[in-house]
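Hi all, posting the design record for the shared folder.

TITLE: backbone redesign
STEP: 1 of 1
STRUCTURE INPUT:
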């Protein structure tokens, strides 16, 4: 099959890239190896720059109606309220962080793209850049496996959005550097009473025993995230000693905040080991023309960072927007590479720093941390901090409307 652009992977990044290209009138096919996407809640924080991209596509308001607009985060130690971080100083129309389960973000992007443009159950197995003596000079071939057998997709450009476990980069001779941090987090989505006064606020607890983060979600739910003590226990449905993830979360939330979570109210649970990884090249330019033969990596296929701070999917959506510009010839491949690598590296450093604040232990260090947080939240530094968490100060952030 011949088309203008093949996108590999129908996660949020691939769907956004596809929808942005369709909006420019580009013919696009998105290949997804699974028969359907799992409806997991995963990335729940959509920041103002990402809402700006969705707005360009005309679907920001639809997504906003499905989530909770978080306008402030309240910060606590174990025993007292340290202050709050308001998102009011954030520039533009979206002065909040939208909390919405990732499958809703994917739903609205898929609708925008048009479901007919996604080919489910088609796994890309290899990418062949154009050869110099190729009859099809300038066209990239994506080899794929479908339920009916092998298939070839030829296009002027390919955007790889196949997630963190992607092997297509390795097939092109690219390498991925990985770094883990030796810590583990557990999380769960709990039923929550929407009449509580703080029901629409993010709550962050920094205690001597470790940190707890809690975010409102639609459908009267709340996400609770805890760092496991020590180097944590392995990911999976059950931890050593037979404790399920939800039991660990409930126990640590109770110990660190005094808040009781009932196990029977838990609706989703997961654990993760933060990791940073980065492909050595985000772009391969194989063709003769400015736009032809381009292979661009975006989202988790290009890079991953610790989810603390909620930047992974948002950085990927910004990649998608620039990748669409690159394959349309509005920026060149080198510019994509430079801009998106820099944005990723700054975001990854911030994610690491956010994680470090939460891992401070011991009563003296923890007391100093509480005093410092309270002082920052009362000071003029709270404004740039709000813009930083809203991802507006990241390099290559899109202009705010
Ligand atoms: C528990 C958890 C919580 C998170 N919380 C946040 C958060 O709050 N905020 C945030 O910004 N980020 C968060 N993240 C990260 C976020 O979920 C990812 O960054 C995001 O899903 C990446 O999107 P993607 O489209 O790049 O890749 P993915 O979502 O991984 O999608 C890749 C798709 O490609 C398909 N695919 C793979 N290989 C092939 C192939 N060869 N051919 C065809 N299809 C293929 C896969 O089946 C998949 O559907 C979280 C992640 C986890 C696990």
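Okay, here is what came back for every position:
SEQUENCE:
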């Amino acid at each position: 099959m011949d088309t203008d652009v093949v996108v590999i992977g129908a996660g949020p990044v691939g769907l956004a890239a596809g929808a942005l290209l369709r909006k420019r009138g580009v013919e696009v096919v998105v290949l997804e190896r699974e028969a359907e996407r799992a409806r997991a809640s995963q990335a729940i924080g959509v920041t103002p720059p990402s809402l700006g991209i969705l707005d360009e596509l005309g679907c920001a308001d639809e997504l906003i109606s499905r989530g909770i607009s978080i306008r402030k985060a309240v910060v606590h130690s174990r025993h007292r309220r340290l202050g709050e971080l308001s998102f009011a100083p954030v520039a533009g129309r979206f002065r909040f962080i939208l909390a919405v389960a990732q499958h809703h973000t994917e739903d609205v992007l898929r609708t925008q793209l048009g479901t007919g443009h996604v080919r489910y159950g088609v796994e890309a197995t290899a990418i062949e850049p154009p050869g110099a003596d190729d009859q099809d000079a300038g066209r990239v071939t994506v080899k794929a496996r479908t339920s009916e057998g092998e298939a070839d997709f030829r296009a002027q450009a390919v955007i790889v959005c196949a997630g963190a476990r992607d092997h297509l980069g390795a097939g092109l001779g690219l390498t991925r550097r990985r770094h883990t941090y030796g810590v583990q987090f557990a999380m769960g989505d709990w039923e929550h009473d929407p009449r509580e006064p703080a029901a629409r606020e993010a709550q962050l607890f920094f205690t001597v025993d470790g940190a707890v983060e809690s975010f409102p979600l639609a459908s009267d739910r709340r996400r609770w995230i805890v760092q496991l003590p020590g180097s944590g226990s392995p990911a999976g449905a059950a931890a050593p000693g037979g404790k399920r993830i939800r039991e660990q979360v409930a126990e640590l939330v109770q110990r660190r905040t005094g808040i009781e979570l009932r196990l029977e109210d838990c609706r989703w649970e997961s654990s993760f080991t933060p990791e940073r990884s980065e492909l050595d090249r985000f772009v391969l330019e194989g063709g003769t023309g400015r736009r032809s033969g381009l292979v661009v990596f975006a989202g988790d296929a290009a890079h991953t960072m610790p989810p603390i701070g909620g930047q992974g999917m948002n950085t990927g959506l910004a990649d998608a927007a620039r990748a669409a510009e690159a394959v349309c010839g509005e920026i060149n491949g080198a510019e994509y590479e430079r801009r998106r690598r820099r944005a990723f590296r700054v975001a990854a450093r911030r994610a690491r720093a956010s994680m470090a604040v939460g891992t401070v232990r011991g009563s003296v260090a923890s007391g100093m941390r509480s005093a410092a947080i309270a002082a920052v939240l009362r000071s003029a530094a709270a404004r740039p901090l709000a813009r930083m968490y809203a991802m507006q100060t990241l390099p290559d952030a899109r202009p705010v409307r």
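COMMENT: Residues 234-238 have pLDDT under 50 and may be disordered.
Let me know if anyone wants the other runs.
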